[in-house]
Amino acid sequence: MAKQVNRALDYGNWVSKRLIYTFSILGIVLLALAFLVWVLVNPALLFLVIASYFAYGRYLFSPKGGNVQNRIWESVILNLDWNGEGQALDIGCGNGALTIKLARKFTAARLTGIDYWGKRWEYSKSTCEANAKAEGVNDRVVFQKASALKLPFMVGKIGIIKGEK
Ligand SMILES: C[S@@+](CC[C@H](N)C(=O)[O-])C[C@H]1O[C@@H](n2cnc3c(N)ncnc32)[C@H](O)[C@@H]1O
């Protein structure tokens, strides 16, 4: 019998680890060099402050911190001027959070999430699909690799957040 894996949801974080590591490494290297060339101490400290700022932002966005990301997704869904009839396209879907949350709210809707899943981010199509399966909406949600600059769809109506003209 196949082993059931109870996989945790992974909706990622808008502040990538790569960003934090890059500034931390730059700061540490410059700090080490500052022992030889003391003027490097100022940029070293600046990079370390920037790294700390991003690390704190990542913490605030995460469920373990302020869960800010989730509050933004909920707010977008709450203010979406759509009754769930038909289909919706989530452009730049990341790990599929909005796509999946919409599918959970609108139980008859069909959703497509696209992203180019570049190396700059920690998102992937396979994580989107695993998240959709874990949330029980994989039968109505499709994820596709595509660029916003060359959409493989005919898009009818855009700009559906309440209050926008
Ligand atoms: C800040 S992340 C947000 C992800 C997701 N919407 C969310 O709320 O978690 C931005 C996403 O947009 C995607 N993206 C940026 N430019 C894009 C483009 N031209 N075409 C497709 N995806 C793009 C990135 O790959 C990334 O996954």
Describe this structure in words.
- The structure is a single chain.
- The protein has 5 helices and 3 strands.
- By secondary structure, it is mainly α.
- Among the domains are: 17-61; 82-148, Vaccinia Virus protein VP39 (Rossmann fold, 3-Layer(aba) Sandwich).
- The chain has a 3-stranded parallel sheet, covered by helices on one side.
- Helix 4 (97-105) links the parallel strand 1 and strand 2.
- Helix 1 (17-33) packs antiparallel against helix 2 (41-61).
- Residues 14, 92-94, 97-98, 115-118, 121, 123, 147-149 line the site of S-adenosylmethionine (SAM).
Q: Give start-end ranges of low-pLDDT stretches.
A: 1-6, 161-165
Top CATH class of one domain: Alpha Beta
Structural category is mainly alpha
Tell me the radius of gyration.
20 Å
Query: Given the structure, what is the number of helices?
Result: 5
Find the count of extended strands (DSSP E, 2+ residues): 3
CATH fold topology of one domain: Rossmann fold
Features:
165 residues, mainly alpha, Rossmann fold, 10% strand, elongated, disordered N terminus, disordered C terminus, binds S-adenosylmethionine
SSE blueprint:
Layout: H1 17-33, H2 41-61, H3 68-78, E1 87-91, H4 97-105, E2 110-115, H5 125-134, E3 141-145
Parallel strand pairs: 1-2, 2-3
This protein binds S-adenosylmethionine (SAM).
Residues 14, 92-94, 97-98, 115-118, 121, 123, 147-149 line the site of S-adenosylmethionine.
